[in-house]
Amino acid sequence: MKRLVILGGGESGVGTALLGKKEGYDVFVSDKGKIKEKYKEVLIHNEIEWEDEAHTEVKILNADLVMKSPGIPDKVELVKKIHKKGITIVSEIEFASKFTKATIVGITGSNGKTTTATLTHHILKQELSVGLAGNIGDSFAKQILQHDYDNYVLEISSFQLDDIIDFKPKIAVITNITPDHLDRYDYKFENYIASKFRIAMNQTNDDYLVYDADDEVITNHLKNHPVQSTLLPFSLTKTIENGAYLDKKNIKITIQNNQIIMPTTNLALEGNHNIKNAMAASTVAHLLKIRKQTIRESLENFQGVEHRLEQVLKINKVQYINDSKATNVNATYYALESMDAPTVWIVGGVDKGNNYEELFPFVNEKVKAIICLGVDNEKLMNTFGNMVDIIIETQFMSEAVKIAYKISEAGDNVLLSPACASFDLFENYEDRGRQFKNAVRNL
């Protein structure tokens, strides 16, 4: 019996444990932190051995295969020891994909991947049996065990791609690549870029790579490191023969001389970045033979993703917007770009080596006040202090929202778009977004 050791007892870890057990592995789950009660119950109920708040090395270094949670960096001592013993380490998507024959759509990118994955799933589910997994919802492994859909849309992070070996999506999507998570890539942007492109490393010319042709990072990398896949670019500015482009207010998608046209006038989601997300999702849907009418209707009735430019409430003619999912500068760029009223901007958190320069034009033009919400706001204060009349710092969401309420006037927006990770004051970006929404509702 092969021994499968799982590091991390979260959603992907427990899903992998269940699938591993069913496939005949001797499974052991080990988490250095505390395993949540709901996951402990699942492990106990399924008689899977586990430990938390410790890693017992003798029980780990005898593994045939290790599945490592994407949150654990390679530089951890235990991971080094596993590598040294020659034990293979894989991510959940690598492990799980071995046990399904489904068509896989893999979506990665620095921003837009959640919206694109959710939108793609929303279109496909109208006509196909399809699961949504990866960084979203129930784990990929658990869905294979419980449903085994014919198709999967997977939102995949660079950390998950770092530990793939044979994983090969039929359709890969790269939404964009901007500097993010560089702390995990020796502060070398090229390492992070290479990590994203692993999504196409096993693809052949029967597979497809859908990508943003307006993104110079992507196009330059493709020039210097060609892939085997059939390329289907999308663009807002160029005319594209094979792929998608914007012609006046219509998205035109051509695949093997078969063209469909989608008007953008009634898209449910606003902003240029969402036209791109719609292009990527529609290209996938067109490849999988979804009817044109279905694609169009789905784009028009899609509700968007929680914590991503989510309109919360209007109070005294001020619109409160939750964009807590903006954990990097590029995401906040899109948020500020889409503001069409004077904006009170709530920003801050754990800075991942951010460069705020690209935000300057928007801050000068649209932002009337800045509220810094973080443990350490010095960089923000120094960067933006001279650009706005009002800049205030706080460490409490409830206080940030009260200040915003005081300084906003009828017709303004109050935007939470932190451009930073959330772990200094919050459990995660969802917790941050929910606290914002609660504070707004309590005004």
TrEMBL record:
Mur ligase central domain location: 107-285
Gene3D superfamilies found in the cross-reference section: Mur ligase, C-terminal domain, Mur-like, catalytic domain, NAD(P)-binding Rossmann-like Domain
GO molecular function: UDP-N-acetylmuramoylalanine-D-glutamate ligase activity
Keywords linked to the UniProt accession: ATP-binding, Cell cycle, Cell division, Cell shape, Cell wall biogenesis/degradation, Cytoplasm, Ligase, Nucleotide-binding, Peptidoglycan synthesis
Catalyzed reaction equations: UDP-N-acetyl-alpha-D-muramoyl-L-alanine + D-glutamate + ATP = UDP-N-acetyl-alpha-D-muramoyl-L-alanyl-D-glutamate + ADP + phosphate + H(+)
Role, per record: Cell wall formation. Catalyzes the addition of glutamate to the nucleotide precursor UDP-N-acetylmuramoyl-L-alanine (UMA).
Family per record: Belongs to the MurCDEF family.
The protein's name: UDP-N-acetylmuramoylalanine--D-glutamate ligase
Gene (name only): murD
